[in-house]
Specification:
The chain is an alpha/beta fold. Helix 8 crosses helix 9.
Length: 322
Amino acid sequence: MPIVKSHYNPPHIFKSGHFSTIYSGLYRNVSGVYQKRERITLSDQDFIDLDWSYAAYQKNVSKLIVILHGLEGNAQRSYIKGTAKLFNENGYDAVGMNFRSCSGQPNRLFRSYNAGASEDLREVIEHITKKYPQYSHIVLKGFSLGGNMLLKYLGEPIRIPKQVKAAIAVSVPCDLRSSLTQMKRLENHLYSRMFIKYLQKKLENKHSSFPSLIKLEEIKAANSMLKIDHLYTSRAHGYKDAFEYYKKASSRQFIPNIKIPTLLINAKNDSFLSKDCFPIEEAKQNENFYLEMPEYGGHVGFYTGTDVYYNEERALNFATLA
């Protein structure tokens, strides 16, 4: 489809990509979402925790949104709960998928999650469609790393269940290697240091459980995103090295094969994204794929001045039309 014209125009200070990113990540608070946890066992005997919230005062709900978080996020983040709340208020049940090791308890295996782990999303969708057959209209929404996983899932040559009607992806680094290069820029130094700190802490936990597979001195030496992906992400998930991981897991190559209505919202002032993370030609050539590139929004920002953020409004509107 042609590129979607964006009408997002935030209050003046939120036209700063960094301010939008930081405010939405650190200061937004979403109340009124009450989640119930379900743990499912995966085919490799690991587990994933799902956090459910439900449409208010409604019975026999047939619509569901499945929401995927970003790097080192979880289903309690404000951007997940903001989406869940809006959809709950509009007749949808919602489920936030906590990736392996992200629900507050270490997962069982040496592997955890990565941007290309679409097999985990596939198992979650299969679980939902089998255990909860009342959901005949399922919408998927993914943020950042979770958005990459979502787009990859949609474009893989494996049938998507007929209940899945539409998808929305937000702030997606759909070319992982060039996005990593972007993260090395000085303007992103604080974000990178934060991610590295969180990931090193998680790797220390892996060392405690699997001391023969990863050493503390290796973890301390992994002082960049690239080094962490060389040391752990690639090795734990079956890739030769970080570069093979970036190549095979990047979702941009899967976009031409997407068969259901899918909206990608990537802000032009998102400092995490390189120019290769804006799949313009793919949008022009795939009638199912819609690309919206607002001038503003930062990374998973999109503040509006109200309790409902722009990407949430757009997601509900897109899901309703699908």
